[in-house]
Amino acid sequence: MNRVFRALLVVVCFEMGALLLYLPWSAFWEQNFFLNHFPSLIHVVLHPSFRGAVSGLGVLDILLALSFIGSRPSPSSAPPK
Which residues contact 69 (CB under 8 A, 6 or more apart)? Predict the structure, then answer.
């Protein structure tokens, strides 16, 4: 995998994870377009268990980004000398 692509993948995964970790507990989560236009979603989306599940996905995304940092490319994908 290309180094630049790998670095971008790490940054994007980490940013998405941070957003998914933070947004369910912010005021933006409670006042958004979808809750205003689909009031039947309010009970599901504002439930603490749903917020926790979304935050858990954020944690998994951050761990995925960290695993991309720690892993090395396999020898079979290295270009020949």
Answer: 10
Say if residues 34 and 41 touch (Cβ distance below 8 Å). yes
Helices (H) and strands (E) counted in the chain, each on its own, are 5, 0
Q: Yes or no: say if 26 and 46 are a contact pair by the CB < 8 Å rule.
A: no
b/e per residue 17-40 (b: at least 16 CB within 10 A): beebbebbeeeeeeeeeeeeeeee
Integer Cα distance of 54 and 21 in angstroms: 7
Q: What would the pLDDT profile of 17-51 be if each residue is shown by its tens digit? A: 999 999 999 988 888 888 889 989 899 999 999 99
What distance in Å separates the CA atoms of residue 63 and residue 44, rounded to the nearest whole number? Answer: 26
